[in-house]
Amino acid sequence: MPCNIVICGGGNGAQVLTALAKREKDVKLSILTTPEETATLNKAIGENGGIHVVGNDGEDGTIDVKNAPDLVTSDPGAVIPEADMIILVLPAFVHELLLGQIGPLLKPGVAIVGMPGQAGFELVLRDRLGEALYHDISILTLASLPWACRFTEYGKEASIIGTKVKLGGSAVISASSSARGLQPVETLQRVLGKRPVLDMNYPLMTWSLFNLNAVVHPTVLYGQWAEWDGKPVDKSPLFYQGINEETAGRMEALAAEIAGIGKALGVDGLPTMLQVYIDIYGSQIKDSSSLYKAITTNAGYVGLTHPVKEAGDGKFLPNFEYRYLTEDIPNGLAVIKGFAEIAQVVTPTLDLLLKWSQEKIHKEYLTSSGRFDGKDVKDSRAPQRFGLTTKADLMKCY
To answer: Annotated active-site positions, please?
Structure first.
């Protein structure tokens, strides 16, 4: 059935999704982004006749498609009121601002998709939209972006480095969506194409707990730089494929702690790290005998390096201001720690990583006494920030 989709964001993922979604002829698609990006995108798309996307399709073939959105705008009022589905392809820290802008324009039954939602996505939705509207929309959240991608020329050319084979997510479909005849999960799969295959049957809380970026990124950074002597390095180390078995073991220990939090809050059966990698990357992994092997033999990770900044004389320093910490701590590890506090679950691995990471980005979530009441909790997406401090409070969101 015809569908009116609004993509919020103008970066890599938004541009790739635009080209893919417009393969469906009955999809009306708009991009909502900043005034600056609106002007740049409109100019680039006009010159190029659309956004050209090429790359891996997640099977044995390739994607080669060029399409243009029906509209690129910075005015929410021009697109949000008539939207059937709104897909947020944005950094997590932008979600609150955007939802505050579009909230008054939303109609009951609209589907809001976090691509990805990141930890605490549903808590932000409830806070910004209000209790009544929160329960009158459909909420979909994905564990990660469907692809590894980047643009080669902004607004004109983008490449898909790797398409994920299977992708977990959650879907809470409201009665108002059903009454409008909307099918949010089916629509989302249709605009993505055959890959990744979406598994949207996980409980909504799953992705606030098992946030893949928050488990992987800070753990890899800790493994590489925790014992660093502070001297510039000759080149940026490999990120994923440069890990050792100790780092992979630390990821598994963190995932086990998260599973314990989930069990205490009534969410059983959280996936293991190894199973997540096998599901997402499939045949791109040459050796799936262990998590360490699955990460280091993943073809989708070839050549990806640590974020660094130039130190002069051709040398480099780690860039701890990159999103792997600045986003994945306040919208990842800190959120998981907040859930752990409510569940009263001890998390030594999580605490180790959070203490090290918060120092690198000059934040305080865990205090020196080990309490989760540091001055920056109020700026995170942890449940405590929203006044949710007991299990009974938390469950109002689910």
So the answer is: 217
Provide the pLDDT confidence category of residue 300 given band limits of 50, 70 and 90.
confident
pLDDT in tens, 81-102: 999 999 999 999 999 999 999 9
In the 8-state DSSP scheme, what is residue 196?
S
Count of CB atoms situated within 10 Å of the CB of 314: 9
- CA distance to 13, 132, 177, 208, 397, per residue, from 204 (Å): 23, 18, 17, 8, 9
DSSP for 334-396 reads HHHHHHHHHHT---HHHHHHHHHHHHHTT--SS-TTS-S--TTGGGS--GGGGT--SHHHHHT
pLDDT tens per residue, range 148-206: 898 899 999 999 988 898 999 999 999 999 999 999 999 999 999 999 999 999 999 99
For 38, 76, 246, the CA distances from 44, given in Å and listed in that order, are 10, 21, 46
Q: Say what the pLDDT of residue 205 is.
A: 97
Q: Which residues does residue 73 pair with via DSSP β-bridges, in sequence order?
A: 32
- Does the CA dihedral 16-74-207-110 come out positive or negative? negative
Edge-to-edge strands of the sheet including 51-56? 62-67, 51-56, 157-163, 147-153
Residue 138 pairs in a beta bridge with 111
Please state the φ and ψ torsions of residue 178, each to the nearest 5 degrees. Answer: -65, -40
